[in-house]
Amino acid sequence: MELMEVIKGRRSIRKYKADPVPDDTLQKLFEGVRWAPSWANTQCWEVVVVRDPNMKSTLANTLTKTNPSLSSMTEAPLIIVLCGKKGVSGFKKGEAATVKGDWLMFDSGIAMQTLCLTAHSLGLGTVVVGLFDHKKAEEVLGVPQDREVVAITPLGYPAAEGVAPKRKEVSEFVFQERYGKKAE
Ligand SMILES: Cc1cc2nc3c(=O)[nH]c(=O)nc-3n(C[C@H](O)[C@H](O)[C@H](O)COP(=O)(O)O)c2cc1C
């Protein structure tokens, strides 16, 4: 697939087939993630692959009942939980190098988008899930104190296409030379 086709064609998928994801496909997916950029190449991300139906249900229970991705958590053949190592991205000799502090969320976001795009190019569906009880998820998964759970995505073959929500026009978010100055 051509890159723009992958970028524009990726949708949040909330309906999944039960078909398993072959191991070699999963390896290709993580190979994509491996090449994501990160602060000073710190690569703070880690992923937990969850296939066990009981664990999937337990993780689904960390979502609010109104989360539109609730049923995807148990429907998809597997769930990927993206974690980040704290205190490395954005740090120099143990000190935060910028006012932003830890860049963990930023690097994890890039890793997750790389995962979602790679998944789409492999015919797989994803949906980034951020609205859940992170502390509970960390407890359930046994995530150590120096790591945190950032986001989750169900992963599997789409059972239904997603509908593309409307996007802002480019002219609404691109300024010229100074903030707020639009192109003439
Ligand atoms: C950081 C983040 C958190 C999100 N959390 C949720 C979520 O908890 N539940 C959900 O159904 N979708 C969630 N989404 C998916 C967005 O709703 C979706 O990306 C957006 O509506 C655009 O649709 P598209 O992905 O099909 O282009 C999240 C997306 C991002 C980037």
What would your notes on this structure say?
Helix 2 (23-34) packs across helix 5 (104-121). The protein is 33% helix and 16% strand. The chain has helices spanning 3-9, 23-34, 53-60, 72-75, 104-121, 134-141, 170-173, and strands at residues 45-50, 78-85, 91-92, 95-96, 125-126, 147-156. The protein starts with a helix and ends in an 11-residue tail after the last helix. It is of the alpha+beta class. The protein is built from seven helices and six strands; from the N terminus they run H-H-E-H-H-E-E-E-H-E-H-E-H. The longest helix is centred in the middle third of the chain and has 18 residues, at 104-121. The protein has a four-stranded antiparallel beta sheet with strand order 1-2-6-5, sandwiched between helices. Bound molecules: flavin mononucleotide (FMN).
What's a quick, concise take on this entry?
The protein has helices at residues 3-9, 23-34, 53-60, 72-75, 104-121, 134-141, 170-173; strands at residues 45-50, 78-85, 91-92, 95-96, 125-126, 147-156. By secondary structure, it is an alpha+beta fold.
Mean pLDDT: 97
String of helices and strands: HHEHHEEEHEHEH
Topology, number of strands: 6
Terminal CA distance reads 35 Å
State the shape: globular
Coarse structural class: alpha+beta
How would a crystallographer describe the biggest sheet? 4 strands, antiparallel
Instruction: Give the amount of beta strand, in percent.
Output: 15-25%
**Spatial sequence of strands, sheet with the most strands:** 1-2-6-5
Low-confidence stretches: none
Specify the number of helices. Answer: 7
Radius of gyration: 18 Å
Enumerate the distinct ligands.
flavin mononucleotide
- What percent of residues adopt helix (DSSP H or I)? 25-40%
